[in-house]
C-alpha cells in the first residue's frame, strides 16, 4: 500500500535501499494472526529491579501486541495528511494539543518537562503520526534516579495498561555534562572518546587524525558548542553523535573494515524507539528475540563472523536482534543504504520494510 504524504521512500536496487523521492512505505510481516501479549525482558537492571532494554543507553521493558493480520501488513495505512506543526506557548497548551490533535492519552509527570522539550517531542510525534499513523499512547517523563543519566529515551508496551509508552528521561537533559563525561570513559571492549579526542586550550580536538571525516568534524563542533542552555534538539543530536563516534571507534578496534563515522540527527533516538514500536507491532517473535537465552538471540551472536554484519550498522546493533532492527530502521528512515547481508538479516527478523 502506498502512502503519498510521507517524507521519504526507498526501493530495493541491487540489494541496497535507495531513496526515491517518492513517498511510500511498506511493512512486511510474517504470519501473525493472533493477538499476542507477551513480556519482553532483555536486560535486567539490578539497581532498578526492572527488565529493561537499553537503547543507545535507554532501557525498556516490554510486551508485544501483535496487531498484524495474516500475510502482509502495512502499518502506514492510517497515515493521513495533517496540518503543519506549531509550537505551543506553554507546557499546558502543549499537553492539550497532544491530547486533542495527536490523541496522546496521557502525559505523565509533565511538570518535569520544560516547554522546549515538550514542543520538540510533540513535533516528532506529529511527524511520526502523519508518516506512519502509529505513535505511543502515553508519554512518561522520568525524574532523576529512575533510569541512568546515559539513558535518554525508551519505549515499551506496558502490559498492565496495554498501552504503548514512550519514556523521556529528563535527568539526561538536565545533567547532560554527565553524559559527555561518561562518553570519555573506556569500558571493557568499548572504546571511550578519549582515544581520539582530547582537550586543548579548553576545546575538544581530534587527536588521532585517522578518525578525521566531515561527520567527525561536525561532531566535534557540536561537542564544543554544548552548554547547559543548549536546546533539547541540540542535546539529542549530540547524544547521537556520541553514540555514533563510540560505535565507530569500537568497530575500528575490533578490526572491522569499511566502517565510517555515521551522520547523526536530533531525532535519531526517537526514530530508533519508534523502530522498536513498529517492529513489536508486526513481529510475532519480538519477545523471543529480546530474551537473553532464546535460540534467536543465541543464533544472532553465535560467532564473530556473523556479528560482523550488525557491526557494520553500529556496535549497538550487534547487541541484539531487536537493537539491530531498530538501528537499521533508523538508517532506512534517513535514506541510508545498507548492503545485501544487512538487509537480508533485517528481513529475517521481520524488520519494518521501508519501501
Ligand atoms: Zn533500542
Set down the secondary structure blueprint.
Elements lengths: L9 E4 L2 E4 L17 E4 L2 E3 L4 E3 L9 E4 L25 H11 L4 E3 L6 H18 L5 E5 L10 E6 L4 E7 H5 L1 H8 L13 E4 L2 E4 L7 H12 L6 H22 L14 H15 L3 H5 L4 H6 L3 H8 L9 H13 L6 H9 L7
Parallel strand pairs: 7-8, 8-10
Antiparallel strand pairs: 1-2, 3-6, 4-5, 9-10, 11-12
Helix pairs in contact: 1-2, 4-6, 5-6, 7-11
Describe the structure.
- This protein is α+β, with helices and mostly antiparallel strands and 355 residues long.
- It has a domain at 176-253.
- The chain is 37% helix and 14% strand.
- It contains twelve helices and twelve strands.
- It has helices spanning 91-101, 115-132, 170-174, 176-183, 214-225, 232-253, 268-282, 286-290, 295-300, 304-311, 321-333, 340-348; strands at 10-13, 16-19, 37-40, 43-45, 50-52, 62-65, 106-108, 138-142, 153-158, 163-169, 197-200, 203-206.
- The strands form five sheets. The protein has a four-stranded mixed sheet.
- A hairpin with a 4-residue loop joins strand 9 (153-158) and strand 10.
- Helix 1 packs parallel to helix 2 (115-132), helix 4 (176-183) runs parallel beside helix 6 and helix 5 crosses helix 6 (232-253).
- It is globular.
- The relative contact order is 0.15.
- Residues 1-73 have low confidence and may be disordered.
- Residues 53, 55, 272, 276, 323, 326 line the site of zinc ion.
Amino acid at each position: 500500500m502506498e502512502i503519498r504524504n510521507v517524507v521519504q521512500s526507498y526501493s530495493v536496487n541491487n540489494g541496497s535501499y535507495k531513496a526515491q523521492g517518492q513517498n511510500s512505505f511498506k511493512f512486511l510481516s510474517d504470519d501473525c494472526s493472533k493477538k499476542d501479549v507477551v513480556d519482553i525482558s532483555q536486560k535486567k537492571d539490578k539497581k532498578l529491579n526492572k527488565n529493561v532494554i537499553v537503547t543507545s543507553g535507554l532501557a525498556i521493558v516490554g510486551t508485544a501486541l501483535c496487531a498484524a493480520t495474516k500475510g502482509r501488513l502495512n502499518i502506514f495505512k492510517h497515515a493521513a495528511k495533517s496540518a503543519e506543526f506549531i509550537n505551543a506557548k506553554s507546557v499546558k497548551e502543549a499537553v492539550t494539543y497532544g491530547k486533542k490533535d495527536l490523541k496522546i492519552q496521557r502525559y505523565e509527570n509533565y511538570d518535569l518537562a520544560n516547554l522546549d522539550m515538550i514542543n520538540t517531542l510533540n513535533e516528532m510525534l506529529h511527524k511520526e503520526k502523519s508518516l506512519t499513523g502509529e505513535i505511543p499512547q502515553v508519554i512518561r517523563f522520568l525524574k532523576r534516579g529512575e533510569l541512568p543519566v546515559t539513558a535518554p529515551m525508551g519505549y515499551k508496551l506496558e502490559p498492565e495498561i496495554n498501552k504503548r509508552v514512550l519514556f523521556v528521561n529528563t535527568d539526561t537533559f538536565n545533567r547532560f555534562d554527565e553524559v559527555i563525561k561518561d562518553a570519555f570513559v573506556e569500558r571493557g571492549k568499548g572504546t571511550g572518546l578519549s582515544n581520539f579526542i582530547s582537550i586543548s586550550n579548553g576545546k575538544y580536538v581530534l587527536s588521532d587524525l585517522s578518525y578525521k571525516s566531515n561527520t567527525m568534524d561536525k561532531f566535534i563542533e557540536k561537542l564544543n558548542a554544548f552548554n547547559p542552555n543548549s536546546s533539547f534538539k541540540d542535546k539529542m543530536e549530540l547524544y547521537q553523535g556520541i553514540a555514533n563516534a563510540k560505535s565507530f571507534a569500537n568497530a575500528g578496534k575490533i578490526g572491522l573494515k569499511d566502517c565510517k563515522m555515521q551522520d547523526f540527527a536530533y531525532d535519531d533516538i526517537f526514530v530508533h524507539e519508534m523502530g522498536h514500536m513498529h517492529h513489536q507491532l508486526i513481529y510475532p517473535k519480538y519477545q523471543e528475540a529480546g530474551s537473553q537465552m532464546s535460540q534467536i538471540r543465541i543464533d544472532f551472536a553465535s560467532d564473530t563472523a556473523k556479528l560482523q554484519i550488525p557491526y557494520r550498522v553500529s556496535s549497538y546493533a550487534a547487541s541484539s536482534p531487536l537493537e539491530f532492527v531498530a538501528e537499521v530502521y533508523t538508517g532506512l528512515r534517513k535514506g541510508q543504504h545498507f548492503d545485501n547481508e544487512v538487509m537480508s538479516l533485517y528481513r529475517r527478523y521481520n524488520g519494518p520494510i521501508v519501501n
